[in-house]
Amino acid sequence: MIRPLARFATSALLSTVLCSASNPALAAGFDDVDPFIGTGGEGHTFPGAVAPFGMIQLSPDTDTTCEIRDCYDHAAGYRYDDPTIQGFSHTHFSGSGHSDLGDVLVMPVAGNEVALEPGDATKPGSGYRSRFDHIHEEAEPGYYSVRLTDARVLAEMTAGTRVGVHRYTFPNEEAAHLVLDLRSSLYNYPGKILWSSLRLHPDGTVTGARQTRGWAPDRHLYFAMRFSAPVKSHAFVNTEEDVAYRGFQGPGRDSDAVAQRQGRALVGRLDFGRLDAPLEVRVAVSTVDEAGAIRNLESEPGTFDAVRADTRGKWETALSAVEIEASDDMRTNLYTALYHSMIAPSVSGDADGQYRGPDNAVHRADGFTFRSTFSLWDTFRAQHPLLTLLQPDTVNRDIIRSLLASQEQSPFGILPIWQFHGQETWTMIGYHAVPVIADAYLKGVRGFDEDAALRAMVQSASYAPYGGLGDYMKLGYVPIDEEPEAASKTVEYAYDDWTIARMAEKMGRTRVADRFYDRSRNWRNSFDDKTGFVRARDSKGNFREPFDPTAINYGYDYTEGNAWQYSWFVPHDQDALFQAMGGDEAAVEKLDRMFEYDMTGIDYSHAEDIAGLIGQYIHGNEPSHHVAYLYNHAGAPWKTQERLAEIVDSQYAPTPEGLSGNDDLGQMSAWLFFTGLGFYPVTPGSLQYVIGRPFVERAVLNLPNGNRFTIRTEGLGAEKPYIGSVTLNGEPLERTYLRHGEIVQGGELVFTMQAEPNREWGTSTEARPYSMSE
């Protein structure tokens, strides 16, 4: 979406040309996307240019000089309420709860004087950073532009899959310069940049590399850049004393280079003189080497306008997976949610198939494109099921094969936990690549070695040194005196084990299935009948005391949550959980208490990821995401409908502050997308979607197999928040779930809404969603 007041004559004219060349039906969804949603508040999204699942995320960084304790707000580089832009870098996370990347920062400068330091945001003119105004800022999928007030430059960005293209329009009669800063990085604490290099080649190509120690411990990134005008002069500066370092595995000195420099704090100045036309800068990156970056650069030729048009076409096609009729705000929210759900897992392999794996060695993908950026603790819940539904070919060709390749190349022989650029961060808990693979396989996705997949899943679930798994396999739970966050780990491992059992059973591997079905019941070992909560036990079997179900502390019994959130995480066996709580009525009463909890005097400001509170329900973090749907499992679906209305109305908006918590690589967005249609994958691996209530008048899923699944709502409106009845293909639907096969074969789902709860629909035990113990 191009924001209403942010239109320059040049870019507005180009937008008109691009739109006129596009299919109007495809452009409809494209034009509803607003990349600024989530760039303020807690969303941590970026507004810059990216192709679907692109390797390049070319976006402005408003502050990379923050103190470590303050960098959380700038995890995506850009924050909407910041007054200045420091520059434009080429790699970013979309909505993560941690920061890194921000590689190869470029900033245009006009005039005779060029500062090589960013300067102070509160002191205009103190460095190369520039003030800007949102009135002169635009963003749409694959395109970003801003007028830099101090630099007096119009900066435009677009991106292909592996190439980012800048276009800078400098003032007439002013010399044009670029600052190329390799010192800049997100979460840039002292010592993060281990080594870097810059070189200018005789043909005017600039290449370089850097090695960083950040969220990933030893990450290598290489780049290549070319310009539409010749570099007339330059300076490569090391702003710290030269230090010898032998650990860098990049290329040595290039005898053919016009100039080169190595060090830990490199910044370059590139001078172009006065220009008669805008300067275009093409940049590609590689995790392999500089030659790979050059090959990537050459793999996507074309001018700025050509790359922008091509990426627009890719986004139009991706977003055309759904046709939505809804209020303007809801259309914007849902199409933006779909857009945010298709940024990661991003391409991490070169055009020739080479990539750097978790062993930090170079490998070559055979028949697939290596992808990384796996925020699996977040995305296994809804974002991966969404991709499995809308892009199953991508899932089987790239995502699953990338996960399996990573397992083969892992020094520990396990599937990724939280990986980017092929490097493991060991962030979060569980082995949640397992449900991603199992859910896709059970839904019919093929094209990968399923025997190797099952072996990788079992091996990941059996690696004793990881996260207390040795004790879990021996005791049936993770003991808190041996491992932090033990209560959360026990229930998450149990769910992952169930998905292994489901896949093994489908494959006819009975012994494996029986073993992991047995392990999937381990959640019961952490459930305290006395208090009715999932709790941490010590190695002697005692529940840890004292116990406060509202307490949230890092390294405590739970992961980014407390007993209120984690006591509902038994998605594969909700019926047994509810019976342990005292039955349906007791479960419903406890769910109500969670949403209606009096938070007076409770302060979670010390916990960064705790946002979007409705009582003890915390929508800004993933452990709560399935909870509103659980009333269906207890025979009270009208309460699910009430809670969903409350969550959607309070947690999402078409504004920069429109995400109540980190988007987490698309999970917050995927939750809204599914919920907006009227159903949600509470239990990936069950082949079911639990019905909530719709927020659209009509939506059509244009499925990859050529079928169309239509959702239609009669009587949609705030005054009619409850489902009166449901039909599927013209027949009454009395159950509160849809089967995956019913969606992919196409058809029509019709909701009729009403003002009062229907306390009869979907209440019988036969109408309830899957539970292992039913």
TrEMBL record:
Q: Which UniProt keywords apply?
A: Signal
Q: Name one GO cellular component term.
A: cytosol
- GO MF annotations, alphabetized: carbohydrate binding; peptide-N4-(N-acetyl-beta-glucosaminyl)asparagine amidase activity
> What does the record list as GO biological process?
carbohydrate metabolic process; glycoprotein catabolic process
Database matches in InterPro entries: 6-hairpin_glycosidase_sf, GH-type_carb-bd, GH92_a_mannosidase_put, GH92_N, Glyco_hydro_92, PNGase
One Pfam family cited in the UniProt record for this chain: Glyco_hydro_92N
Q: What positions does the domain Glycosyl hydrolase family 92 N-terminal occupy?
A: 33-286
Q: Which NCBIfam families does this entry report, sorted A to Z?
A: aman2_put
Name-wise, this protein is Alpha-1,2-mannosidase
